[in-house]
Automatic annotation (TrEMBL):
Presence of the UniProt keyword Coiled coil in the record: no
Reaction(s) this enzyme catalyzes, per UniProt: [protein]-L-isoaspartate + S-adenosyl-L-methionine = [protein]-L-isoaspartate alpha-methyl ester + S-adenosyl-L-homocysteine
Superkingdom of this protein's organism: Bacteria
Single GO MF descriptor: protein-L-isoaspartate (D-aspartate) O-methyltransferase activity
Family as reported in the entry's similarity comment: Belongs to the methyltransferase superfamily. L-isoaspartyl/D-aspartyl protein methyltransferase family.
Protein name, entry field: Protein-L-isoaspartate O-methyltransferase
UniProt entry keywords in alphabetical sequence: Cytoplasm, Methyltransferase, S-adenosyl-L-methionine, Transferase
GO biological process: methylation; protein repair
InterPro entries to which the protein is assigned, alphabetical: PCMT, SAM-dependent_MTases_sf
Active site, UniProt feature: S62
Main function: Catalyzes the methyl esterification of L-isoaspartyl residues in peptides and proteins that result from spontaneous decomposition of normal L-aspartyl and L-asparaginyl residues. It plays a role in the repair and/or degradation of damaged proteins.
Length: 213
């Protein structure tokens, strides 16, 4: 494979900065993290290419730009507590952890959960806590969360997640009727009110669970 450091610099410049993501902490995380260690070995050479990649069990690691865009929309600050639904490879969680937040992440597929857990241990990323469960129910024990990010697409915003979001708080989630295309939805909670805005089309794998498909 080509030099991962140079591949990452190029990825950040051409796929992320060029498309308008400018948050320095997001760019720094994506320049630093070894994305090639989050994909199956056979795909390591494609890890810095401009798209999603298979991670087994019919699931995917998100396209680098989408990871950056969602991380920026969240507006995390060091010390915050963040809940992620859909651990998958663990890459998105690692990006957030690199930005200085405590990450709680939930995955429903056993093999992916164990693979991500091993990856975090190998990388000594101890600020990420994992749970094997249906994430549409959230993780009530550690609520409220300053930020919530859902990295799978569902038909609606799961009510338990909205309840577990702190006030003030921000949540980013792909929502759509179709199982292929969703709208990237930002929910901003403040003063007991929730403001909803949409930020373009995305294509995530299904959010499967009690408040999902
Ligand atoms: N954030 C991941 C993206 C993984 S794809 C990454 O950086 O690699 C989305 C993941 O969401 C899949 O692994 C899928 O199994 C998981 N998922 C789907 N529905 C879920 C649910 N209800 N609870 C937890 N995880 C779920």
């Amino acid at each position: 494979m080509v030099d991962p450091v140079r591949s990452r610099e190029r990825m950040v410049r051409e796929q992320i900065e060029a498309r308008g993501v400018s948050n320095p902490a997001v760019l720094d995380a994506m320049r630093s993290l070894p994305r090639h260690l989050f994909v199956e070995e056979a795909f390591a050479c494609k890890a810095y290419s401009d798209g999603p990649l298979p991670i087994g069990e019919g699931q995917t690691i998100s396209q680098p730009f989408i990871v950056a865009r969602m991380s920026e929309l969240l507006q995390v600050e060091p010390g915050m507590t963040v809940l992620e639904i859909g651990t998958g490879s663990g890459y998105q969680a690692a990006v957030l952890a690199h930005m200085g937040v405590d990450v709680y992440t939930v995955e429903r597929i056993r093999n992916l959960f164990f693979a991500a857990r091993k990856r975090f241990m190998d990388m000594r990323l101890f600020s990420v806590k994992l749970k094997l469960d249906d994430g549409t129910m959230g993780w009530p024990e550690h609520a409220p969360y300053d930020r919530i990010i859902v990295t799978a697409g569902g038909p609606e915003v799961p009510e338990p997640l909205l309840e577990q979001l702190a006030d003030p708080g921000r949540m980013v989630i792909p929502v759509g009727d179709s199982k292929r295309v969703q709208r990237l939805v930002l929910l901003e909670k403040a003063g007991g009110q929730v403001i909803r805005s949409e930020h373009g089309d995305v294509a995530f794998v299904d959010l499967v669970g009690q408040h999902g498909w």
